[in-house]
Amino acid sequence: MIPAHEQDGLSVYVGGQTAVHKDFASALSGKMPLFVTIVVALGCLLLMLAFRSMLIPLTAAVMNLLSAGAGFRIAVAVFEWGWGSSALGVGPAGPVESFLPPMMLAVLFGLSMDYEVFLVSRIHEEWLRTGDNNLAVRRGQAATGQIITAVAIIMICVFTAFVFAGLRIIAEFGLGVAAAILLDVLVVRTILVPAAMQLFGKWNWYLPKAIDHQLR
After folding, report:
1. Of 12, 40, 44, 86, which is least surrounded by CB within 10 A?
2. Eight-class DSSP state of 166
3. How crowded is the C-beta side of 86, counted as CA atoms within 13 Å?
4. Quick check: 123 and 140 in contact, CB under 8 A?
5. pLDDT in tens, 12-25
């Protein structure tokens, strides 16, 4: 322990692994809002370019954040709170790694956008062909539901295998991503997104002329 007084002008620095981890966690938490904003903004811009819509990108951003947040919460419940950690063989409860939220968010946003583009592209095709939003949503979901589910099952199996790799860090990431994909496919992409598109009706495909002109 080093005695220090402010009037002495002495700056005391602490080294070691604990101090490094604390500084790293502080730096990540400080940049997390900017990171989330950039990821969401870029995703919304790409969807806006693809579908010429305001509501579809915003809906996708909200749904993606919901599934990512749920997956991270499950990882916290297992690894930090200890719910079922012994059954999974991941050791005692302890703090979750500080880099897990941004890492999970980046991966899940990419995967969720794949599902979103695949689903909405089919709905958009039917909308352009029929002009009936409700019919387009029903046909698009029926045409893509089985493929999205099959792909999700493969991804869930892959990331679930990470849990049994014997490394806590890898297990945290694998469980969080697998749980988020499961919720995304069972709840978000098959229920919430189609329900929201049914509710919004023709407003799904609205884009102000000024913005449309800038995107061309």
Report:
1. 12
2. S
3. 0
4. yes
5. 667 777 777 677 77
Stretch 131-137: mean pLDDT: 93
The confidence score (pLDDT) of residue 198 equals 93
Structure tokens at 9: 């002008």
Q: Up-side HSE of residue 57: CA atoms within 13 Å toward CB? A: 18
SS3 of residue 62 by DSSP: helix
**pTM value?**
0.82
Place of tokens 């997956």: 71
Select from 59, 64, 77 the least CA-distant residue to 104. 64
Does residue 208 carry a pLDDT above 60? yes
Q: How many angstroms separate the CA atoms of 90 and 72, rounded?
A: 16
Distance CA 186, CA 204 (A): 22
The per-residue DSSP string of 122-185 comes to HHHHHHHHH--HHHHHHHHHHHHHHHHHHHHHHHHHHHHHHHTSS-HHHHHHHHHHHHHHHHII
Report the SS3 class of residue 80.
coil
Q: 204, 56 in Cβ contact below 8 A?
A: yes
